[in-house]
Amino acid sequence: MKTLIVLRHAKAEHTPGVLDFERGLTHRGQRNAREAGVLIGPLKPDLVLSSSSKRTRQTAELLGLAAPLELDRDIYEAYTDELLVLIRQVGPEVGTLVLVGHNPSVHELVMGLTGDEVETFPPGAFAVVELPGPWSEVDSGTGTLVDTHRP
Fold first, then answer.
1. Does the domain made of 2-149 have the CATH classification 3.40.50.1240?
2. Does residue 5 have a pLDDT over 90?
3. Which residues of 24-56 are buried (b: 16+ CB within 10 A; e: fewer)?
């Protein structure tokens, strides 16, 4: 059994003239990222895989998890099927993975994996999905939604 924690980056600033990729977190977003880390920490993630945009990188870092952090620019504009490809490449030694990304892809990923209707996925929200078997076999409809959290 594998555990996937899908986290949307926390609340980001909207500053005129700042490129979307370079938008950082608001004070509330920073607080919500730390709170998410407190809730995710007991699940003992083995790896955090995050988009390399500033707001996702900050979210991942503020989680304060002991797990290694890998940044991947491809997550920034990835569609759900592209996120699945990245997840399938995770090594078998990883039992619990945190994926930090962007909407609408992360929201659609959770619904696609579980078949559950997750109404909203605001900034800082996350879902915990259990997956039977190895990462290489993760596909739509193979997951079970265990928990969700909205800040």
1. yes
2. yes
3. ebbeebbbbbebbbeebeebebbbbbbbebbbb
